[in-house]
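Input (Phospholipid-transporting ATPase):
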Amino acid sequence: MAAERALLIPSPRTPKSTQDLPSFPVSSNSGVKVNLDNPILVSGMDSQNPTESSSSNEISLKSASIRSLSSNPSRASRGNSIGAGSFRDLRSKPVRLGSRRGDSEVFSTSQKEISDEDARLVYLNDPAKSNERFEFTGNSVHTAKYSLISFIPRNLFEQFHRVAYIYFLIIAVLNQLPQLAVFGRTASILPLAFVLLVTAVKDAYEDWRRQMSDRVENNRLAWVLVNDQFQQKKWKDIQVGEIIKIQANDTLPCDMVLLSTSDSTGVAYVQTINLDGESNLKTRQTWTLMGSDCHLGPPILFFVAVSSKNTSWAIGVAVYCGRETKAMLNNSGSPSKRSWLESRMNSEIIVLSVFLIALCTVVSISAAVWLRRRRGELDTIPFYRRKSFNEDEPKNYNYSGWGAEIVFTFLMSIIVFQIMIPISLYISMELVRVGQAYFMVRDTQMYDEASNSRFQCRALNINEDLGQIKYVFSDKTGTLTENKMEFQCASWMGKVVRPKMTVKVDPQLLELSKSGRDTEEAKHVHDFFLALAACNTIVPLIVEDKSDPAMKLMDYQGESPDEQALAYAAAAYGFMLVERTSGHIVIDIHGERQRFNVFGLHEFDSDRKRMSVILGCPDSTVRVFVKGADSSMLSVIDRSLNKNVIQTTKGHLHAYSSLGLRTLVIGMRDLSKPEFEDWHFSFEAASTAVVGRVALLRKVAGNVEKNLTILGASAIEDKLQKGVPEAIESLRTAGIKVWVLTGDKQETAISIGYSSKLLTNKMTQIIINSNSRQSCRKCLEDALVMSKKLETMSETSDNTGTSSEAARSPVALIIDGTSLVYILDSELEAQLFQLASTCSVVLCCRVAPLQKAGIVALVKKKTSDMTLSIGDGANDVSMIQMADVGVGISGQEGRQAVMASDFSMGQFRFLVPLLLVHGHWNYQRMGYMILYNFYRNAIFVFVLFWYALFACFTLTTAINEWSSMLYSIIYTSLPTIVVAILDKDVSRNNLLKYPQLYGAGQRQEAYNRKLFWLTMLDTVWQSLVVFFVPIFAYWASTIDVPSIGDLWTLAVVILVNLHLAMDIIRWNWIFHAVIWGSIVATFICVMILDSFPMLAGYWAIFNIMGQGSFWVCLLGIIIAALLPRFVVKVMYQHFTPDDIQIAREAETLGSLRGIAVEVEMNPIMEPPSPRR
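Output:
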C-alpha cells in the first residue's frame, strides 16, 4: 500500500490548485451530508501506466449536488462466479447487488461533475501530507454548546428568547433611573437574576455532562498504523489519511473507506443502530482498483457510530473526522413542540398585561388629577415637596412638571406592579415537569421485562398534553402486534445446531420436502423452501446456547422480522441457510451442503413491492427467485401455467388475510443463457450509473421478474401484544378515538381489528376502496348519507325510549391507501374528516408513511383536539413527528421511531397508564399550578394598587422592597412546586377503573377561560380583605407604614398558602413541611430584614407583633378572605359535583367502610371542536 496513493474526496477546504485528473463514473447513495451522499465521480490511475502512478497517483472522488431521497446503502458483490453453471467466466469482473430505495429517481439536468477546488485529497497512510495543503478538521468531537468564555453571553442570549425575560429586564433597567427608582437597585434585579441563575446552572450541568461524554469518546483508543505497526492511539488524535484497524464489535472512530477485511471476499458486516436506528446487519465492500474502473461509494464507506459485526477485523483509511463525520453532520433533534397549556397560558398573560396597563393608567391619571388640583400647595405639602428647603435657596427637587410626572408615574407603576406577570412561573413549570418525568420513568407498571426497557421521557415540555389526548393514531405491525415468530430445530454436519427460534412443522409437508425432486410436487416443495432460504438478505450467525454449552444456535440477522420468520421456517423444513458471502450462499438441505452463487439481488422497494435473487445452482442452471406482496406478484405470474394453482392460491391468500396473517407470494423461473447475459449486462450498467441508478435498476428488475411460475404463498402470524384488546377498550371508554394506520392488506387489518376489540360485530362498517377521484367523491357522499341516517335513527330511538340494535350500532370507517391518494390534499378532505368524525373507529389499510402523516395533519387542521401517534418503525417517524405527542415503541424494527419520539416505551398497553394515570395527573396539576401562580402574584399586586390609591398616587410602597422581591421566589414558590409534583386528585386504581375520568382533560376542566376569570374575581376580593381590614383596624393608631406593610406581607403569604392547602387532596408530611415551613420562613425573613438599621422599617415587625390586634387582624383576614371560596366550593361539590369529585368521594367512602363502591360514569360523547 503506497503512501503516495491519494483519495480525492469532496471538500470545500481544498484549494484551487488541485490538479486535474481523469474521472470515471461510479454509483453512490450513502446519505453523507458532505457531498458524499449523492452520485459521485472518481478519478483513478491510468490503467495503461500502473508503475507511473505508484508515486504520484491520486484518486479523485467527486460528487454532484443533488438531493438524495434515501440513505439506505446498496450492497456490492464482487468476485462472483457460477462455477459449473456459468454461461461465462465472471470471476474477473465485480458483480453488484441492487439498491434498495437508493437514489432519487428524478435528477436535475444540471447535475455535473464538481470542480477540483471542491474536492478533498487524501494520501493513504500519510496524514502529514494529507493535511499539509488542506485544513482538515481533527477527530476531536465537541457536542457541548458552551466554553468558559462563551457560556455567559451565549446562555443569556438563549434565555432572553423568552419575551417575559425581556420584560423583566426592561423593568430592572427602568428602576435604575433616579427619576423612576421605586425599589433599591439591587432588589429590582434579584428576581430576574435568580431565574437566570437557576436556568444557567441547569444548562451548565447539562453541558458539563456533554463535555464529560465528549471526553470519554475522545479518549477512547483505536489501532492506528504507525511505522508499519498498529499502535493504540486516542480517537481525538486520529487524522485524515491514517490507516485504522477495527476489531469485531468495535465502534468506528471516524468515517473511513474500507481497504481490507478478514473475509476472503473483502466483505465486512456492520451494524448502524447508533447511527440510524437500524439493528440489522449491513454489508460493506473493500475498495479496489480494477482496470480503469474505481467504484468508490457507500458499499465501501464506514461511518462513525457504526459497529463492526461478524467480522474479525477490518482495515480502512480515515477520510472524514470530527465534526465532518456523518454522525455529527446528521446530529439534529426532534422538532420542537410546545404544550397546549403553555400556548394557552400566553393568552392569559396578555390579559394580565392588559390588567397591568389598566392599573398603571388609573394610577397615572389619578396622579395627574391630584397634581392639577393641588398645584398651588405642592410647596407646602409635607409628604409631596415640590422644592427642597434644606438650603438657603430652594431648588426644584424630584419634580419635572405635571406632564412629565404622569409619564414617570406610569413607568413607576409598571415597576411596582411588575410581578403581575409571574416570572417564577416559567421556572416552576420546568421543575414540575422534571419531577413528573421522574415519576413516569420510575413507574414499574410501564417497565417491559421482555425487552428490559423502561419508559423514557424524551421531551419534558409536553407532559401535560398527555392528559388531553382525543385522537390516537397507531401503527399495527410491531405496535399492536409482537412482530416476531417462533420456529423449531434442525441439524447440520453432525453437530447439534438448530435455529435460534422454533416453529411447528407439518409432518406430511416435512416428509415431502425430504423426497428431493423426484416428483413434480416434490420439486415445487423443494423450490419453494429454497426460495425462502435464499431470497433474502439474512446473515447467519452461529452462537452458543447459554443453557446448553454443547448446543449451537443458528441466529439469523435480517432487515425485518418477516425475513427472519421465513428463513427460520425454511430451516425448520430442512433448508437451513448456514453461510453468506458477497458472492455465494451455502444452504444445508437435509444434511447436504449446497453452494449457490449469487449473481445479483434486487432488493425490496415500495414501488415494486417484491425482491428477487439470481442464483447459479449446483445443477448448472441459473434461476431467479422472487417473493413479494400478492398485489404485485400476481401480475408477473405466467397465468398460462397452473391456472388452478393460481386460483387456489388466491383463495388461500384471502383466507390467510382474514385470519390476520401477513402473506407473501413466491415465484421463480429458469433463465436461459441469452436472458442471463442480457440481464447481467443491464444490471452492471445500471449498478454503475451516475444518474437515475434506482430507476434503471428497477427497470432491470422488472425485465427479469416476469413470466414466473408460482411456487406458493407464505403466511406469517403476527400475534397481538399482551393487553392490547383491554388497552384499546380502555382508551375508547375514555373518549379517545383510536385510528389504526397500517400498510397491511385490508383483510389482515380487519382481522387484527376484531382480535384487538377495535372492531366489533355490532359495528356498521363503511368500506371505501376507490381508484379515481370521482369514485372517492361518490363513496364519501354515500357514506355521509348513511352515517347521518344512522345518527337520526339513534336520536329517534333515544327520544322514543325504544331500543334498536341497528339504530345504536357504532360506525367503523375502513379506507385504503389508494383512495387516500385522491382524497388527501384535495377538496375531499373535508368530507373525509366529516365522515371520520362520526365514526367510532377508523382503519386505514395499505397506507404509505407520508399518508400516515397526512392523516394526522388533516385531523390537526380540522380540529383543535390533541393528537398522539404511536409506532415502532422507520415508516412511523413522519406520523410520530406530525402529531402533538409522539410515542415510540422499542420494538423489532430498530430505534428510528424511538429517536424521533417525545416518549418511548416497550408495549402498547403502557399507553393506558401513561394517558389515563400520568397524563391525567400531569394536566390537573399543571393547570391548577398556572392558575394558582396567577392568583398568588395578582393578590400581591392588588394590595400594592389599593395602597397607591391611599398614598396620593406617589407609588411609595409600605411593603419592604426585599419582601416584594422574595415573595415569588422564597415565600410562596416551593409549596406550589411540590404540590404540582406529588398531589393526586384521584388514585391510580380509580383512574384505571373509570376511564371516563380522563374526559376532564379533553374538556379542559382544569384550565380554561372561565376558571381564569373566577380566579381573578376571587383574587380581587381577597386583596380587598387583606388591605382594608388592617386599614380600618389601625386607622386611628400610631402604627407606622413599614409595620402595617409587614402585616400585609405576612397576611398575603399565610393566605395564599392556606388557599393552596384547601385544594390539596392527599396530605402527606412533605406537604405539611413545605406549606407551614414557608409561613415560618416568611416570619423569619421579615424579622431578619427588619433587623438591619440601614433598611427602611427597622424593627417594625417587632413593634406590631407585640400587640394583640396584630394577631386578631391576621385571623380576621384569613377567615373573611377564604370564607366565600370555601362556601362556593362546598355548594358546588354538593349540588353539581363532577366525575372526579364523585370518584374521589366513592374512594373515600369505600376505604372508610371497607366496601367496594360502584360509580356509574356517563359515556363521553362529544362532537369534535373546531380548530382555534
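The radius of gyration is 37 Å.
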